[in-house]
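Quick one:
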Amino acid sequence: MTGRQYLLLALLGLVAAAFVAAFQPSPGYMDADYYDAGGLQLVQGHGFTEPYLWNYLDDPSGLPHPSNAYWMPLASLLVAAGTALFGPDSWLAARAGFLLVAALIPPLTAALACSFTSRRDLALISGLLAVFSAFYLPYLPLSDTFGLYILLGGLFFLTLNRRPSHLNPLLLGLLAGLMHLARADGLLWLLLAFMAAFLYRKPVRSLASILVSLLSVLAGYLLVMGPWFIRNIAAFGTLLAPGGSKMLWLTSYDQLFSYPASQITFSAWWQSGLLAILRVRAWSLGFNLSTVLSVQGEVFLLPLIGLGVWHLRKDRRIQLAGLAWLGTLAAMTVFFPFAGARGGFFHSGAALQTVWWVLAPLGLDQAINWAGRVRGWNTIRSGKVFRSGLVVLAALLSAVIVYGRVMGGAGGTVWGQENDAYRQIDSLLVSKGLARGDIVMVANPPGFFLASGNPAIAVPDGDLNTLLMAARRYGARYVILEAGATPGGLAPVYDHPAGQAGLQYLADVGGAHLYAIQP
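Output:
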């Protein structure tokens, strides 16, 4: 492909992401709120600390709390870079880096396609599929890891096509480090980098040269992750943040918000029964396979991806991609079933999306060639028609998804409504006596912090006694219980707001019930 074509794909990617961004006045959900708030904390000189708690997994001592005890910091670092360059008070500045990432993904996908087939026509279609990225498109302009993971995954597989060089293992290690810095499951990519360094060696190499390659991978990884490990040791006393390990022993998704988290143990998990453990993983597998069909395969691309995989089945990069996919699916089904089914596999599977966009046009080409041999089709004319149709379908699917998820079409919610609601709630609480610095208990603590500037902690999973214990330990003064986000144990408090022991009912704001906590 020519430089002009790569530039055109980048501009199209930027335009598509910017169009979506125009309808997103705020991050919109807790993950993106968290990364955005973390970036602002960095720019404002507060370092890796947070005036909010969205879970209690690491038994936090209070606020402010060391940040990133569960989620990794790369997205927040990108937010910080944008706000430092373009202004700390601008949501557009905060996502400037993510818009750049969105612009880079289509030309990277086209370059990866060229590395497999050297065909400009197929590479262009792959790049356009990346422009119209369907389920990923609403999230590319946001302060989240989707675009970062797509970009880094594509770079990983593009690096595998470089001429043999002593630099390649180091590059793979650097990319694995960045992927781990983006997401905790990025550690899987370090194992894949080690495997790639071993597989992509010259036919005859000494044991010493293999060892050097493996050490180069580790060196690249530690160049990125080493400073973060040092920070974790200083903040938590461990190499890895402590919040994620308890996710192995959840028996329900709501336990993620348990207080105290000491009740989440292997013993309690095992006592839930083998049948319940297996049932949860079967449930998660069903959700994750639906993600394969709808998100990764975009429904109509999936059979074409399968044909592309079969055509390139002897290519080691495809074999490694298949191993990465299986490893990710296993991790998000067997080890982290609740996180996987509730969006973890959607997030982590993004690392392989460029490969699927490369394989789909190739699979279509194989189908057209078969039809030419068996049915006598004119393969040149058919190829042009069907490849154009593939892009049109991707564009239509992307439009429907953006309309439904971002603009509130088909009964959806207009983006940013939660942020608006939190601003209204904050104004009312101020009129009721809320002072700056008072801690509020709410479903989305980083989102409430962004909307109000007040510190916040999560409404815990449990009953009223659990809520009051957590509130008193961390000094919360107010509680917000929201429709659709109130734990089952607190449903009686939401349904009958007046006269609850320890709480003073203040008001209802758009279905959210507001309470003051009694001393």
